[in-house]
Amino acid sequence: xxxxxxxxxxxxxxxxxxGLTAAAAALPFLISSERQKLEDLRITLRNPKIKLLTNxxxxxxxxxLQRMSLPPNLDYSRPHNLFNPVPWIKQPDGTxxxxxxxxxxxxxxxxxxxxxxxxxxxxxxxxxxxxxxxxIKRDAAADPNQRHKxxxxxxxxxxxxxxxxxxxxxxxxxxNPTDLMLELKDSNQQVSISTxxxxxxxDGFTADLKYDPExxxxxxxxxxxxxxxxxxxxxxxxxxxxxVVLSAKANDKKTTIKFIPPTEPR
Length: 266
Known about the structure:
By secondary structure, this protein is of the alpha+beta class.
């Protein structure tokens, strides 16, 4: 112990020098290790390991895109009142009365009572010196004077220009034919007629209509006719066997009125 007390400075200095010697000896190894770490880091950064992407779940996004491609069909027309406020007027006695809307008045309240077809009818009605006497009835003619039945003589070599057909040929004896073959000028359709078998084709329709709010009725109305009711004029633009289409003179707005036959529940 006495030795240590006398020479502890030397001993401490020797330990420090020994530590420094060990550190100096270990320094090249540390430098080499750090260099290797830096090299590994450089290689990793320049050639990173890329992980393959997994399949992404796009179900929610695809559903959102699908909803955007099919926007909701919003109908704010009557009877929806958001953009169609219902007006009221004050009566002299102080009570309020609702002003009727277009669903309570106007073309929406027109009813089709009946629809009847208009025919083109061709019939063989006799044989004469000028050829074959053919009856013509054109119910759908625009000129009312042309709607009554007329007769004209026609032959294979001579068909009147005003006739709606051309006589192509005669089957059977000339004085007692079994059939006459005709070609319709408006459609080039070939049809046949005989004494007991006329040709008949639907060329249009007439309609009977009524408008209960004003107790109005119209009979045998045709396409192109005008109706006056609810303070406006309406043109019949289409008549089919199932509906009538009206067009308002004020704004050309069209309204389709469905025909419900009386045999069906109304």
